[in-house]
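Colleagues,

For the teaching module next term, I've prepared a clean inverse folding example: a structure given as tokens, and then the sequence designed for it. I'd like students to try predicting residues themselves before seeing the answer, so please don't circulate the second half yet.
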């Protein structure tokens, strides 16, 4: 029988020795880590480093919620998955990786969408909730469920070269997500990794910092970012921390007289679903649209004029040989003479000008703008853009 005043085994002491000797951790802190339970919502770019460091640090029980499967375009940033797991559920993939790091960790996976129907059944079983999601509807859902179950929420996000982190509902004056964002943004103004990209180390930095704050909450009961927002610009190599306004007394979920006492329909509230999948616009009449197969037939019999509305860097990745790159930011300036010069025609041109983009959304906006601007020219959108072209016409054409 051990004469020590703690319950750590010889193997525990050896495995966690480098953190046991740290100020603020010690044997008591390690026991708290071992006895804690953390729920991670999202098994992607942020969820991977969070899970990796929590498992390695000895967190006793980890819950992971995600409905998606591993895809090739995940691997540059989602470092707990690999090529052999493409097509596997991300929850299953993370469980396998956790078991390789620390087989003593109990891993509970939920391979479905978090929703208002199941959140309040899952959240009470954990001490801390971690938001590693990728869409606004899920962020509101996680926030409200965390408040209703009285759990601190460690929230991170990353897009492009930038990332941010904060901790909600942690202390008497600490705000929640609704305190800061009482009204959701319009769906058309919400960006995502699929459309705007993200660099792997950015999610690594944010996810690692989330894991750090989780461990501090477990051991110390406090966080350095409760009521503060940490901002990271990886391109400029700059960070800054700003103070958030304190908890709002009139907040509908965490205020003095809350009106939200049950979870609501968050897709309806936000005007968008609980995923980061891009919206498919349908704003043009059928006569202003043409399928990729029809366009393929047209180009086999003639040399049509094709405007490619993507940014220059995306145009460089791949494009049809006849495509003329005029990005949306140029079209929006409505410099008609410049546009005529770029495509080499004038108002007397009596054939259709075609417009293409990545997925068929920007091209519709462009056709709408161009047909309003040029009264004697006709512009048509190619439905589904290059993604449909790759799917239905030329499978060798790369998609990204």
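(Answer key — instructors only)
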């Amino acid at each position: 029988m051990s004469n020590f005043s703690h319950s750590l085994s010889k193997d525990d002491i050896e495995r966690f020795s480098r953190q046991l000797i740290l100020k603020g951790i010690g044997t008591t802190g390690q026991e708290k880590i071992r006895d804690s339970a953390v729920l991670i919502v999202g098994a992607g770019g942020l969820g991977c480093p969070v899970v990796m460091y929590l498992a390695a640090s000895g967190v006793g029980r980890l819950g992971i919620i995600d409905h998606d499967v591993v895809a090739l375009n995940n691997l540059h940033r989602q470092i707990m998955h690999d090529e052999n797991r493409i097509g596997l559920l991300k929850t299953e993939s993370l469980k396998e990786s956790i078991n390789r790091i620390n087989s003593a960790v109990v891993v509970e996976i939920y391979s479905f969408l978090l929703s208002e129907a199941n959140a309040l059944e899952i959240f009470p079983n954990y001490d801390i909730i971690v938001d590693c999601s990728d869409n606004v509807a899920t962020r509101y859902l996680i926030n409200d469920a965390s408040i209703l179950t009285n759990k601190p929420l460690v929230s991170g996000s990353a897009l492009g070269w930038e990332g941010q982190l904060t901790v909600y509902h942690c202390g008497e004056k600490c705000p929640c997500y609704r305190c800061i964002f009482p009204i959701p943004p319009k769906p058309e103004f919400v960006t995502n990794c699929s459309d705007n990209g993200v660099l792997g180390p950015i999610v690594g930095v944010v996810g690692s910092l989330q894991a750090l704050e989780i461990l501090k909450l477990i051991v110390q009961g406090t966080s350095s970012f409760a009521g503060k927002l940490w901002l990271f610009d990886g391109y400029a190599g700059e960070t800054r921390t700003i103070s958030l306004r304190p908890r709002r007394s009139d907040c509908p979920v965490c205020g003095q007289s809350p009106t939200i006492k049950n979870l609501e329909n968050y897709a309806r509230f936000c005007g968008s679903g609980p995923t980061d999948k891009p919206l498919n616009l349908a704003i043009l009449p059928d006569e202003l649209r043409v399928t990729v197969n029809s366009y393929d037939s047209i180009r086999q019999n003639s040399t049509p004029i094709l405007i490619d509305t993507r940014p220059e860097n995306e145009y460089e990745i791949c494009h049809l040989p006849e495509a003329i790159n005029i990005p949306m930011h140029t079209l929006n300036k409505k410099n008609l003479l410049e546009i005529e010069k770029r495509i080499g025609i004038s108002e007397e041109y009596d054939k259709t000008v075609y417009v293409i983009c990545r997925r068929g959304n920007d091209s519709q906006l462009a056709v709408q703008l161009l047909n309003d601007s040029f009264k004697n020219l006709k512009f048509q959108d190619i439905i589904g853009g290059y993604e449909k072209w790759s799917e239905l016409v030329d499978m060798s054409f790369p998609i990204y």
